[in-house]
């Protein structure tokens, strides 16, 4: 028995694994590839040069792989890449990349994407993230693994959000957020370390204490950003249990392009 509903429109050139399910009234374009176990619910449109991995679940009324909302885009064959095991809820909009960046928008593995989320052109989202309802990313935003964006959080173009960061509800984010940091407000301000998230992911007490020490150095010591980077390098030696995490924080500071929330 076919797993494609008779009312769905699947272009003959689309490449779908035989196990893929497509619900009523969904539309799959000619340049789409979907791997095994993925379920596309009803009234979903998947178009553009879009590649989707295994075991994803698309709920109804999603727009996946549509043209970028960027006037500079002139129809170039840019891409959208989605990994494995993602849950993608109702009314989401994921756009293709542009030639002004890498030409691809990416979503990694095992992400939970709630209703009305927007991933704009050229966004790079890692794995194991959570986007609550109406979280919105402008173009070229990077989001690290295990980051959480609460409902109605809005992120300015080109911002970076580090791994394990937490963005509070209704936050207006116009600067980069270092790994492990919790921010909220409009404009966004730092509120501490995402301790609860780290505990849930099995971080040891020693690692969390090391991250908190690094946070205090960055935010409460009165050091300039350059001075804080040098001090963090010393902390890697002084706090070996958290050396990997402190190095990740220091490396992030070296790539921040919009300044950090501070």
Automatic annotation (TrEMBL):
Keywords: Acyltransferase, Cytoplasm, Lipid A biosynthesis, Lipid biosynthesis, Lipid metabolism, Repeat, Transferase
Catalysed reaction equations from the record: a (3R)-hydroxyacyl-[ACP] + UDP-N-acetyl-alpha-D-glucosamine = a UDP-3-O-[(3R)-3-hydroxyacyl]-N-acetyl-alpha-D-glucosamine + holo-[ACP]
Pathway: Glycolipid biosynthesis; lipid IV(A) biosynthesis; lipid IV(A) from (3R)-3-hydroxytetradecanoyl-[acyl-carrier-protein] and UDP-N-acetyl-alpha-D-glucosamine: step 1/6
Cellular localization per UniProt: Cytoplasm
Pfam families listed in its UniProt record: Acetyltransf_11 (PF13720), Hexapep (PF00132)
Signal peptide positions (record): none
Main location class: cytoplasm
GO process terms (BP): lipid A biosynthetic process
The name this protein goes by in its record: Acyl-[acyl-carrier-protein]--UDP-N-acetylglucosamine O-acyltransferase
Lineage: Bacteria, Pseudomonadati, Pseudomonadota, Betaproteobacteria, Burkholderiales
Gene from which this protein is expressed: lpxA
